[in-house]
Amino acid sequence: MRKKIMIYAASMALGSLMMLSCSSSDDEGFDEEKKLVNMVANVIPVKLTAEQRVFVNDNNGFSLNFLKQVNETDRSGKSFIYSPLSLTYVLGMVNDAAEGQTEEELEQTLGFHEGGLHAVNDYCKKLIDGLPYVDKDVELNIANAIFLNNKYKLKDQFQKDMQDFYDAKAEALDFKSNKTLGHINDWCKNKTKGMIPTILDEVNPDMVMFLLNAIYFKADWTHQFDPKQTKNETFTTEEGTTTMPMMHQNVLISYVKNDTYAGINIPYTNESWIMTVMLPEEGKTTDDVINYLADKGWPKDYQVENPMSGATTYEVDLKLPRFETSSDTNNMDGGLIEVLKKMGINRAFDSQSAQFPNMCDKPVYISLMRQKAKIKVNEEGAEAAAVTVAGMDVTSAGPVEILKADFHANRPFVYLIRESHSGVILFVGKFTGTV
Question: Of the four, 63, 203, 238, 263, which is 20 to 30 A from 306 by CA?
Fold first, then answer.
């Protein structure tokens, strides 16, 4: 009878979600000193203009669609991690010099619609100035740079915009020098604290410039996992089973369940940053979860559906693997440029039709794009970094009863790292147990 009452309470609290049929977890296997910890976020929304709030929602739509396109392109079955926000910064810098249909494709795909380059620049500047200071206990560094072939000259307005809105100071280098490759890669290494030691394999002496963004994130869980509770357990992959360290904690946490996945929000430090983990329901896969997010999350009436919409507080028996993932878009079929073409950006990569008249003293197009990213998740928290590069080349032209649930991430799952005040998605990833 108690179980029926609990299920009814959950259905009332979640409103539009289906009635939950989860079973209550018991305390078997827990050490006596193991306590229930509160992981329910309590935050104050950040103040954004109406236009910037639309940009957040729609750019998150881009992030989720990017997650879908990467998932469809990379069929290796391996885990991956990427930063759509890092990509947004590089394309935002490029967009500053764009005109015509090239600008339209960039802004539409990124979710900025008819905002125009000045509004895009203002938005990117707002995040650069604000996100790193949301939580003083979270280390977040966002850096941009331009490395220019000293044979060319930037347009004055473009150079000013890069400095004013992206904190990116152009540095002229000799692209024929062997030292240039090391100099650019050292910038990546320094800005990501060694997590991304290189982004380029070579420097073409005829390349006009490289525009780069680096993001570094490090945060402790609000309530850390006890290493004594971490045990090697079975993890079911798409190919079979393996054994890996599973962290374990009994938590009071935001939890939601629908036909496609069960989801939880695991907060960092003062709960301004969260990792949302989505575990496919029985009979579903990570593909189903990602497709669901892209379909539901793609901009509609300027509101991206939060993957935790309808979540309520549960006491959850949580198990999460300790893992590390590294990704490189060059390992995908066609690379990053082909992914972005599928999403609607084409002219920017076409040497015949790209429109970037406001960048430098020569007509240019994007001939190279790449992102490398890495994440480490352990009992203390998470550390993640990403570097994105674009190479420009000359054209030829209310109170309810606390419910209980199990959330054992012992099979492939999807996750996001996002800032809870603004909703900005920083990283998207899939963990399959295979690296």
Answer: 238
Q: What is the CATH number of domain 79-214+324-376?
A: 3.30.497.10
Q: Rounded distance, CA 417 to CA 425, Å? A: 6
pLDDT tens, position by position, 238-286: 889 999 999 999 989 899 999 999 999 999 998 899 999 999 999 999 9
Is residue 25 over pLDDT 50?
Answer: no
Average pLDDT of the chain to the nearest whole number: 87
Pairwise CA distance, residues 435 & 433, whole Å:
7
**Beta carbons of 392 and 366 less than 8 angstroms apart:** yes
Q: Domain 2-43+220-319+400-431 belongs to what architecture?
A: Roll (2.30)
How far is 388 from 90, CA to CA, in rounded Å?
7
pLDDT digit string, tens, across residues 295-309: 886 544 445 667 888
Whole-angstrom distance, CA of residue 334 vs CA of residue 426: 24
The backbone torsions φ and ψ at residue 254, rounded to the nearest 5 degrees and listed phi first, read -70, 125
Q: How far is CA 16 from CA 20, 97, 399, in A?
A: 11, 45, 18
- Pick the closest to residue 277 from 325, 313, 318 (CA basis): 318
Gap between the Cα atoms of 364 and 247, Å rounded = 50
- Inter-residue contact 409 to 320 (CB < 8 Å): yes
CB 414 within 8 A of CB 290: yes
Domain ranges of the chain: 2-43+220-319+400-431, 79-214+324-376
Which one, of 241, 253, 293, lies nearest residue 415 by Cα?
293
CA-to-CA dists, residue 322 to 72, 151, 196, 382, 410, angstroms: 26, 48, 20, 10, 11
The three-state DSSP-derived secondary structure of 83-134 is CHHHHHHHHHHHHCCCCHHHHHHHHHHHCCCCCCHHHHHHHHHHHHHHHHHC
Closest CA to 186 of 214, 225, 222, 151: 214
